[in-house]
Amino acid sequence: MAALEAEVRADADADRARREAAAAKVREVRARQVAERDELSTRQVAIVKKGNKAVRKVADDSDDDADDLGGAIELAGKANKVRKELAKPIAKGEKSWIKSGIASLALGPIGWLYAGSLRETIPLSAGWVVLAAIASKIIPVFLLMPALYVALPLSGIAGVVYAVQYNRHGSRQRLFGNKQEKPKQLRGG
Question: Which of 92, 109, 136, 160 could connect to 101 by a Cys-Cys bridge, CB 3.0–4.6 Å?
């Protein structure tokens, strides 16, 4: 009987120790959260004060207008480069960004097969077909259309980007994943 009582006490002591450890951990987490909240508040106050100084400086100094103008000119220059790139005639071996965009807009990721990286486009196209087959059986068309009104234009944009990347590099380029992937080496080589 004494051994049983000792065992029960040991279990009770172990439970109490676990509860105390859990309570200490909860107190530590709460203290950390309070410290983080206080630090965030301090940073926000500093940002607001800094912002007020910046507003006053803009009111006092018109040099920022020149910076804004310079940024606008830089953006216009980049837009002009993109326009020229899209307007140039398609050379032999290049992909048409118009065809790629229309195919991707109409067919979703299946249109990406025209100019996209096969490593990305084949699995995404297969997934698109499976998803379309399942969704067409389960979800009514009037509920599916709003999702398609968002997904298909984004797919068209991705198709255009795939074609432009193909033309820039002369080969199919990946848009997603690790672009700087090193080729695998064979053993002993």
Answer: 160
The DSSP line for 26-76 is HHHHHHHHHHHHHHHHHHHHHHHHHHHHHHHHHHH--HHHHHHHHHHHHHH
Closest to 97 (Cα-Cα) out of 85, 80, 109, 81: 85
Q: Does pTM surpass 0.85?
A: no
- Residue 187, in any domain of the structure: no
What is the crossing angle of helices 63-87 and 141-169, to 10°? 90
The DSSP secondary-structure symbol of 188 reads T
Q: State the total domains in the chain.
A: 2
- Name the residue range of residue 4's domain: 1-58
Under 8 Å between Cβ of 102 and 157: no
33: which 2 tokens? Answer: 């959260």
Examine residue 16 and state whether it is found in any structural domain, yes or no: yes
pLDDT number for residue 22: 92
